């Protein structure tokens, strides 16, 4: 999973929506930051002098009281630090993912059937094949419900590796993998919403539908201020939280309800801009040592800034404002909170022989995930793409061979963020709490190992294919 929109690839420097931000020109930075947080989480969860404090902090209950009232407000009574991260902060992550998918459907690589068909078909292959492998490994066991864990791609790490590989990978394949990851996100969102929620409270869900309909009506009537949408988003989150649909889905729903139309069109922008530029010139004192900007000029500049802001749609402005917070705060915090697996011994890393808690009836979670990411992802992506091309409903990315295509598809096996997130939702009610925790821990280890091996395999194959083709 990722939060990096379609990139303009220019040799080894990527411009993140041409924003000019220094970090955005270093696509490897987010991947490295997440990796550092994973390592820190593993250390915190296993070092004798940090283990107890780490788990204690994550299990701390959060409550907000009105002084003297004796009543809890805002947070549910079972809200811990870990649940706050997974059920509230991750809503913001899913919200920005929804904005990204919406933008790509409207203007980007998924904006037309011709553009979208190939990566969408490949994404379905990259979901189906790992799910089938996991199911075959764990058929008939309590772990069978975790088939969704190895189906996601984390583009942050994939882009990190692609940026290091540089010109060895054709630009068309880099764009294809990014478009595939966006389609993969949309499928993963549907998987979580349909298969990993709780029991549905239909009356409460009906109230949620009414709130969503009112938000649509508000947008239809032309509301362009963000405050009413924030209020509606909080309301939808509360309803989803208690209705049985995972609360993070409220972020995706609200992302598609945010207006994608700017307050000012081109003619209005030009007219208003010229008005204030003329006033700005009129307020010029023409003295070289005079203060600039003076009071009236500051007012003009503020108005020019407001006009420029309102000439961009709310959807873009919100995504632009939230992306740095999500990429460099929320995702690292998520990694710190969820990658901290207590390792009893080195045998825990042996995904090929490991059964959960030593009981075969609980399945081989690690093996299913590891094989799903390392083998299922590239095979599914490549096979479905080959079928699409044979049926003439898709086109091979320009200047790409099948060998290089498969090598890049291996990078699709880097699951991490969404895979770990699905793991935290899996296996509920199949056993006692200790066993479920052990199953989820085994899943997280397998996600990390599978993602690392997929990244190494993809990198080695890209270099090998590049050397062969260069001869």
Average pLDDT over all residues: 81
Q: pLDDT under 50 segments (min length 5)? A: 1-25
Rg over C-alpha atoms, rounded to the nearest angstrom: 24 Å
Reading the helices and strands in chain order gives: EEHHEEHHHHHHHHHHHHHH
Helical content class: 55-70%
Biggest β-sheet: strands ordered side by side in the sheet: 1-2
Quickly count the helices.
16
Main sheet properties:
2 strands, antiparallel
Number of strands: 4
Assembly of the depicted chains: single chain
Short description:
This protein is an all-alpha fold and 471 residues long. The chain has helices at residues 28-46, 51-58, 81-106, 113-138, 155-165, 171-195, 202-220, 227-243, 248-255, 266-282, 295-310, 314-338, 365-390, 402-410, 417-425, 433-470; strands at 8-10, 13-15, 64-65, 72-73.
Can you offer a commentary on this structure?
With 471 residues, the protein is mainly α. It has 16 helices and 4 strands. Strand 3 (64-65) and strand 4 (72-73) form a beta hairpin. Helix 1 runs parallel beside helix 12, helix 3 (81-106) crosses helix 6 (171-195) and helix 10 (266-282) packs antiparallel against helix 11 (295-310).
